[in-house]
């Protein structure tokens, strides 16, 4: 005797409430995806901003290290090390800037999706065909 099991994804217990709505639920799905995307973007923005701050502290530590222990060394060693830190800072600052622009665009998209959801909600309350 063979027992057939239903996959949890295909059973009625895990059925999505948006599945029956079809195309009318597209703004809802889109808004949910945008919220998740925005949360991830904000987390990455915070991490990259923290890395920028860490680069500033690292640059200061390198400068202090050379001033205390490398005064007898060629001054180009300090310049090259600090140049490397500045290049890394500029590259990361560019990434932070573009991530900030992406966050702003995602927020605008989320506002539009929220407006579509509000319109859909009002249409359903009025009993119109969606």
Name some characteristics of this structure.
mainly alpha, 2 helices
Description of the structure:
By secondary structure, the protein is an all-alpha fold. It has 2 helices and no strands. It has helices spanning 26-69, 75-126. Helix 1 packs antiparallel against helix 2. The longest helix has 52 residues, at 75-126. The chain is rod-shaped and about 85 Å long. The model has no long low-confidence stretch (mean pLDDT 83).
Shape: rod-shaped
Secondary-structure class:
mainly alpha
Query: What oligomeric arrangement do these chains adopt?
Result: single chain
Rg, alpha carbons? 27 Å
Strand tally, please? Answer: 0
Segments where pLDDT lies below 50 for 5+ residues?
none
H/I helix tally: 2
**Overall pLDDT metric:** 83
Distance between the termini: 48 Å
Give the percentage of residues in beta strands: under 5%
Instruction: Please give the share of residues in helix.
Output: over 70%
State the major sheet.
none
The helix/strand series, from N terminus to C terminus, equals HH
């Amino acid at each position: 005797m063979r027992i057939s099991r239903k996959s949890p994804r295909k059973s009625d217990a895990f059925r999505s409430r948006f599945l029956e709505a079809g195309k009318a639920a597209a703004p809802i799905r889109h808004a949910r995806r945008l919220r998740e995307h925005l949360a991830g973007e904000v987390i990455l923005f915070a991490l990259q901003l923290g890395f920028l701050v860490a680069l500033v502290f690292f640059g200061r530590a390198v400068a202090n290290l050379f001033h205390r222990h490398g005064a007898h060394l060629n001054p180009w060693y300090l310049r090259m090390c600090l140049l490397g830190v500045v290049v890394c800072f500029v590259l990361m600052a560019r990434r932070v800037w573009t991530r900030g622009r992406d966050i702003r665009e995602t927020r605008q998209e989320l506002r539009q999706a929220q407006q579509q959801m509000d319109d859909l909600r009002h249409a359903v309350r009025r009993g119109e065909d969606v």
